[in-house]
Design goal:
The structure is a single chain. The protein has 71 residues and is of the alpha+beta class. Helices cover 41% and strands 11% of the residues. It has a two-stranded antiparallel sheet with strand order 1-2. The protein is flat, with a radius of gyration of 19 Å. The relative contact order is 0.17.
Length: 71
């Protein structure tokens, strides 16, 4: 008797496309690590509220680009 070897979805995490490791800003590079550090600082300043990851990340990118003089 043959066994069914079809892969099954076990409800685990779904694979997503890899994110770039840096953002080019006016010829200067902002790394994911820099953004993550700034986003963490913003999160702490805002009282460590859950569910604000994307907002904090975008604010961190905005701040770092402004510091580099990039629009």
């Amino acid at each position: 008797m043959a066994q069914d070897r079809t892969p099954r979805n076990t409800g685990g995490a779904t694979a997503t496309a890899p994110r770039p490791t840096s953002t080019k800003a006016g010829g200067k590079t902002i790394t994911r690590e820099q953004i993550a550090q700034r986003a963490h600082e913003i999160w702490v300043k805002r009282g460590c509220k859950p569910g604000e990851d994307e907002r904090n990340w975008l604010e961190a990118e905005k701040q770092l680009k402004a510091e580099l003089g990039v629009r």
